[in-house]
Amino acid sequence: MEGLFFNVNGGYVEGIVRGYRNSLLSGQNYSNLAQCETIDDVKLQLAPAYGDFLASLPPNPSTSDLAGRMTDKLVSEFRYLIAQATGSSAKFLEYMTYGYMIDNIALLITGTLHERDTRELLERCHPLGWFETLPVLCVATNIEELYNSVLIETPLAAYFKDSLSHQDLDELNIEIVRNTLYKNYLEDFYNFINTHPDFSGTPTQDIMAEILQFEADRRSINITLNSFGTELSKLERRKLYPEFGKLYPEGSLMLSRAEDVEGVALAVSAVADYKAFFDSVGLSQGGGMGGMGGGPADGKSLEDLFYQKEMDMSKLVFTRQFTPAVVYAWMKLKEQEIRNVTWISECIAQNQKERIGNFISVF
Amino acid sequence: MSGAVGREAVFPTRQSLGLMKSKLKGAEIGHSLLKRKSEALTKRFREITRRIDEAKQKMGRVMQIAAFSLAEVSYAVGGDIGYQIQESAKQARFRVRAKHENVSGVFLPQFESYTQEGVNDFGLTGLGKGGQQIQRCRETYARAVETLVELASLQTAFLILDEVIKVVNRRVNAIEHVIIPRTENTIKYINSELDELDREEFYRLKKVSNKKQRDVAAADAEILAAREKAAAQQATNPEKNSTVQVEEETTDVLGEQEDNDVIF
């Protein structure tokens, strides 16, 4: 039923995205890239997919420049999509940008806290998290003004309002602020796709619920793992867990009580996927913190496995139709692609060829 | 060689000869001491050079690993965390303290690195994702900085030692090639001058005794002549001569000439 009228408003956007999807780098492309000797070769290999955006780069560009140009392309494509989208699809795409807005605002908060000129920071802001009133935030010179203007000017007001006061911005670590916002954002997004009349009961709800649940679980697990050995208390930690996902509520509770990696492994053991991750990186057997470097034999870290899983889910989204969720999936794939290319070019630039295969190729 | 260095401006006296001799002895002792110091420093210098070489190679490896771990961070986080880390770092966790080491009288600064435990300003960075990579990256860079500190102390020691060795070698050479030859020359000069004086003295004495002998001979001849004259007078005027003879006897009683026979 939902397919009957979807194309009236969302067909064009979906079509465009499916076109974009075809320009994603394939396994063949990646193996070509991995054989490159210089960054220039990488640039050449990327030319079919990125064309104009890389043309103006100087010879042998730095990897960050390269990544910057690739991000530019992603941004311009996304802007086109968001300009074309209407109605609830447009709202959905806006939701996608909130995550980047959170990062930008966290950046500005950091700058204001340290009394820097926040105008200089605008350049560092992620272009996807850009909104019209972002420069207004630079007017604020102290944290209270900033807090008020955030409440008034930004779409993120709702995430601030209930959980953070302006004193919190001053006192709490910026990472806690950021993660609190992100938690609120994820919950709101989840709520949005589940309750919005245009989305409930559609493939969008199915897909996005799964993806967002995964995202929420991933954040919970990462926060727990990364908080070991820091001053973050268990109570504070618990406040950062999004209140949905496959782990919620029992797993989250166990996570909040976990004191070491074994505790985390125990907490996630109820969910088969995560248990498999922990088993494969050897964390559940009481091994050390598995990482990209000194970890397991196959060189995959927990983060890598999470990314892999995210990519698999994103890939599967393209089997569904009549949903703006493909935009979300495409964006995630594209971001992973940028990370992959950055990784490959870093490996080439630093002459560390043995680790070059450590990227995640999807197609 | 010895001609070039000249000698010191001293009066060739026995006193200055003594001074010079003690100076020569002092110079020789100083020379051997400085030589030993220079050798000790050179030994140390070589060791430091070797260690610098090792440290530089280690630095190359460590820096490479560190840069790569940063790449891992940017892969895992997927964004730029530089600004946040710069802003959140308030206190130095990695500190350096300097101390002195005494190598044969030369003070070499040594930098010693230590981490201030409990200072962990960006422990929460990457809480959402990539935190482990960030921590590991930080550890790798801490190791890299450690190597840099080690290298820095070696390099400083290298520079200072280089300078000191040059100075010491200059001193050793100066003593060996200038001061000792010059003192020796001076001693030789004083000796030769003293010998010369001795010879002159001897010659003078000889001359004096010659002259004395000549004078004595002349006086003898005169006396002889006078006596002959008197004898001739006596022969012509004996009475008169007797009274003169008596007078003469009183005056000449301690004379060198042998007493004339008194003829009454």
TrEMBL record, chain A:
Top-level taxon of origin: Eukaryota
Gene3D superfamilies assigned: ATP synthase (C/AC39) subunit, domain 3 (1.10.132.50), V-type ATP synthase subunit C domain (1.20.1690.10)
Keywords for the protein's UniProt record, in alphabetical order: Hydrogen ion transport, Ion transport, Transport
GO molecular function, one term: proton-transporting ATPase activity, rotational mechanism
GO CC entries: proton-transporting V-type ATPase, V0 domain
Family annotation (SUPFAM superfamilies): V-type ATP synthase subunit C
Quaternary context: V-ATPase is a heteromultimeric enzyme made up of two complexes: the ATP-hydrolytic V1 complex and the proton translocation V0 complex.
Role description: Subunit of the V0 complex of vacuolar(H+)-ATPase (V-ATPase), a multisubunit enzyme composed of a peripheral complex (V1) that hydrolyzes ATP and a membrane integral complex (V0) that translocates protons. V-ATPase is responsible for acidifying and maintaining the pH of intracellular compartments. This subunit is a non-integral membrane component of the membrane pore domain and is required for proper assembly of the V0 sector. Might be involved in the regulated assembly of V1 subunits onto the membrane sector or alternatively may prevent the passage of protons through V0 pores.
Family: Belongs to the V-ATPase V0D/AC39 subunit family.
Name of the protein described by the UniProt record: V-type proton ATPase subunit
Automatic annotation (TrEMBL), chain B:
Gene Ontology, cellular component aspect: vacuolar proton-transporting V-type ATPase complex
Keyword flag Transport: yes
Keyword entries, A-Z: Hydrogen ion transport, Ion transport, Membrane, Transport, Vacuole
GO molecular function: proton-transporting ATPase activity, rotational mechanism
Places the protein is found: Vacuole membrane
GO-annotated biological processes: vacuolar acidification
Function text: Subunit of the V1 complex of vacuolar(H+)-ATPase (V-ATPase), a multisubunit enzyme composed of a peripheral complex (V1) that hydrolyzes ATP and a membrane integral complex (V0) that translocates protons. V-ATPase is responsible for acidifying and maintaining the pH of intracellular compartments.
Biased composition (Acidic residues): 246-264
Ion transport among keywords: yes
A Pfam family matched in the record: ATP-synt_D
Protein name (record): V-type proton ATPase subunit D
Stretches the record annotates as Disordered: 229-264
InterPro entries in the record: V_ATPase_D
Biased composition, class Polar residues, residue ranges: 236-245
Gene3D superfamilies: 1.10.287.3240
Recorded topology in the membrane: Peripheral membrane protein
Tree of life domain: Eukaryota
Family named by the database record: Belongs to the V-ATPase D subunit family.
Major site of localization recorded for this protein: membrane
